[in-house]
């Protein structure tokens, strides 16, 4: 595990060459994926750097909710763009803004964000796929710092695995899709949290199971395990494997969920 001094040393080196920061947020949980530690660090070390927020995966969230989130962050003084890097939605508006903002050559644009927010997909969208960064649903997939030419004036810098994660609770990290599923110590605790955030009908629709009104989470896990063959010797449902299946589907948004901005 990286020490606090380790990430600060690396990040401080990177931001000395940075002119603009794009922080990628997951539109399903913008506040949960907004990295306050990084923002405070930048303000104390390079306060002249502008941080712009990128609300990614906006295609899977109702438009009124996206607008509410934009208004919320704008009221806090942020410039924010709603995009879907996967489908190239909102990318043109972001590009136009960057071209208008960048007035000198060799401008470095640093892209930061929690694992699984779509940083690599954003890079591919901005570069039209001419420079492909590895894309995976596995948290922390891309691991080396990359500098990628965007135009003759602009370069993108990706810092995978460098930025700190504010949250240290395993359950909360998994809910934010910031942990590799196979490394979870208690998958059931994560699924219990997911169960409180979505409607029961989603389990029926996603896993093609039929629930009775009295069914609790344990029955849901049992039925999913039998439906998908996640069994141990003797036909006993493998609870851990079912929970990991549910968490992976959560990370891929097969189980739909989104948060609303504070009132």
Overview of this structure, please?
- With 263 residues, this protein is α/β, with parallel strands linked by helices.
- The chain has two domains: 155 residues, Rossmann fold (3-Layer(aba) Sandwich), CATH 3.40.50.300; 82 residues, Conserved Hypothetical Protein Ylqf, Chain: A, domain 2.
- The protein is 39% helix and 13% strand.
- A six-stranded mixed β-sheet has the order 3-2-1-4-6-5, sandwiched between helices.
- Strand 5 and strand 6 form a beta hairpin.
- Helix 7 crosses helix 10 and helix 9 crosses helix 10.
- It is elongated, with a radius of gyration of 20 Å.
Provide a compact summary of the structure.
The chain is α/β, with parallel strands linked by helices and 263 residues long. The protein is 39% helix and 13% strand.
């Amino acid at each position: 595990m990286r020490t606090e001094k380790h990430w600060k040393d690396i990040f401080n080196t990177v931001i000395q060459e940075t002119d603009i920061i794009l922080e990628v947020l997951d539109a399903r949980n913008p506040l949960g994926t907004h990295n306050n530690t990084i923002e405070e660090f930048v303000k104390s070390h390079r306060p002249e750097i502008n941080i712009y927020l990128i609300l990614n995966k906006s295609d899977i969230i109702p438009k009124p909710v996206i607008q509410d989130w934009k208004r919320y962050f704008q009221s806090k003084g942020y410039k924010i763009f709603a995009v879907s890097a996967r489908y190239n939605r909102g990318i043109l508006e972001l590009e136009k803004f960057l071209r208008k903002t960048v007035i000198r050559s060799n401008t470095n644009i640093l892209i930061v964000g929690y694992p699984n927010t779509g940083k690599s997909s954003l890079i591919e969208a901005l570069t039209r796929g001419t420079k492909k960064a590895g894309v995976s649903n596995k948290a922390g997939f891309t691991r080396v710092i990359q500098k990628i030419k965007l135009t003759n004036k602009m370069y993108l810098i990706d810092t995978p695995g460098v930025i700190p994660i504010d949250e240290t609770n395993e359950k909360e990290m998994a809910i934010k899709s910031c942990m590799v599923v196979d490394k979870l110590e208690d998958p059931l605790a994560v699924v219990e949290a997911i169960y409180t955030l979505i409607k029961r009908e989603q389990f029926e629709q996603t896993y093609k199971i039929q629930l009775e009104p009295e069914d609790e989470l344990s029955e849901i896990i049992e039925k999913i395990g039998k439906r998908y063959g996640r069994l141990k010797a003797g036909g006993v449902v493998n609870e851990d494997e079912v929970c990991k299946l549910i968490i992976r589907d959560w990370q891929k948004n097969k189980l739909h969920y989104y948060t609303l901005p504070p009132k």
